[in-house]
Every structure is written in structure tokens, then in C-alpha cells.
Amino acid sequence: MAGSKIETRQRFTFLDIFRIFGGLLIFSSVLSYWFTSTASWNLLEGKYTNVDFYKFEFSRLVFPSHYGTMSLKQLSLYNGTDSSLPIYISVNGTIFDVTKSKHIYGPGGRYHIFAGHDYSRLFVNGCFKKRDQWTFDLRGLDRQVVQSTLEKWSQYFTRHPEYWRVGCVDFPSLKEIEPPEICDDGLVYPGF
């Protein structure tokens, strides 16, 4: 009787093959999501397959004083005009490396205006034509709109496969500065 149990366990059934295949597929998807931020092993995307991301992480570990908090003046150096430096933008104080999109954020790019700056107010109201709106100063704007919009932009840059967080901005005090005028005729991005 013990021999017959051994014989039946030595045979694979269709269900066993399905379980093995399903387990390997799930395991592969989990590993893929971990390394590429997609479940399909799309090796062309994902910050975890990007050599520059690992260079940044390594240099951050070796030279921790060079990364973390930056002043607006320090951030302005990373505007894409110096090809030896990465391109950074900041959204609500969080700095992202967007160097992989030089054609967008670099000189001559459609959104070069954001490179090397924290223009969070523009992300909210889209008033590109009024220079006083090019600021991180969010005073005077609807708090719920500001929170919702900046959270969506921050998620966009955080989840983007080619961008990563590099630090945060140390903002100067706004106590002695007048807030910008309210602008209602800005460009509103769909879904933001």
C-alpha cells in the first residue's frame, strides 16, 4: 500500500503543472515589479534597471553631504545648461532628477522653465505668462486644490520609471515678501 502512494505521487497531473507554471509566473511578476516597476519585465523602463540611478545611489552613499537638502540657489545650478550636471526640478520642495528627459526639461525643451527651480505655483495654476507666478509661494491659493494638484504631480514624478527623488529644498522665509496676485487664466492640465 505504501508503494502505491509513491507511484501516484511520482506522476504529474495537469493541476500540478498549472500550479508550477502559475507560481513561476507570480514569482516572476513580483521580481519584475521590484526591479522595473512593471509586472511584465519591461526592461526598457524602470529606474531600477537604469545605470544612472545606481550611480546616484552609490554616490549618495559615498558622499552623503552632497545630497539631501538644497537651497534654491544650489538647485538653480541643475537647470540643464551645464552638461556635466544632472537636471533637477522640484515639486513642493521634493527634488527629482529628470535628466533622462533632456528633450523636455533641458535647454530648448518645452518645460525647461521648471529645470533648476521649484515653481510649485505653476504646477497648480498654470499661469506661465505672469512672471510673478513662477515661484514656490503657494499663499493665496485654495488649499484643497494645492494639496490635490501637487500630490498628483509628486506621484507622477515619483512613479515615473526614469525619474527619482534626490532630496528636498530648504525654502527661505516668506514673512517679509508679499504673496503673488491670484491668477485665474492659467493652463489647467487634464487630470490634475
From TrEMBL:
Keywords: Membrane, Transmembrane, Transmembrane helix. The keyword Membrane applies. It comes from Dekkera bruxellensis (Brettanomyces custersii). SUPFAM superfamilies: Cytochrome b5-like heme/steroid binding domain (SSF55856). The keyword Membrane applies. The chain crosses the membrane at residues 12-35. Residues 70-170 form the Cytochrome b5 heme-binding domain. This is DEBR0S3_00826g1_1. One of its GO terms (cellular component) is endomembrane system. InterPro entries: Cyt_B5-like_heme/steroid-bd, Cyt_B5-like_heme/steroid_sf, MAPR/NEUFC/NENF-like. Belongs to the cytochrome b5 family. MAPR subfamily.
